[in-house]
Amino acid sequence: MSTVKWSPLRELEEMRRDMDRLFEEFLSLSPRRRRGLAGRAESGMIVPNIEMYDARNEIVVKAELPGINKEDIDLTITKDSLILKGEFKREEERKEEEYFINERNYGPFSRTVSLPVEVDSEKARATFKNGILELVIPKREEAKPKEIKIQVA
């Protein structure tokens, strides 16, 4: 029986290869399956996908809420955060064995987002069209960008 010299560098290299393989397997999942994995919080709640951007004097937030009625959406806006709640409901109940494929998520959803600047929640506007909720929230006056002209002497 021969002895093999232990090498910590060899073990680190094997660990790095294992981690590379793990990431490759995850990234090879279809985007829909990745979104399904990332679309649930640890509590099991659905977390809607959002985008938020700065439109100079206001913050615009868009949330994907396909298949939901606007009456089932609850919004709370404070000066520095947005809370989006609601529930995706099934149209009718089916037994699990009746499904061939079921990739849709049902149940309550919640998403709390910190706003990057203080906003004027009283003047916020919301529209809901084709499963996309769009919020336009004006910035507070002190958070708006200021232009200063420089005089050349």
TrEMBL record:
Extent of the signal sequence: none
Superkingdom of the organism of origin: Bacteria
Domain annotation CS: ranges: 45-153
Stored InterPro entries: A-crystallin/Hsp20_dom, CS_dom, HSP20-like_chaperone, HSP21-like
Residue ranges constituting the SHSP domain according to the UniProt record: 41-153
Any one GO BP annotation for this protein: response to heat
Alphabetical UniProt keywords: Stress response
UniProt-listed PANTHER family: 26.5 KDA HEAT SHOCK PROTEIN, MITOCHONDRIAL (PTHR46733), HEAT SHOCK PROTEIN 21, CHLOROPLASTIC (PTHR46733:SF4)
Family: Belongs to the small heat shock protein (HSP20) family.
UniProt name for this protein: Hsp20/alpha crystallin family protein
Species in which this protein is naturally found: Candidatus Nitrobium versatile
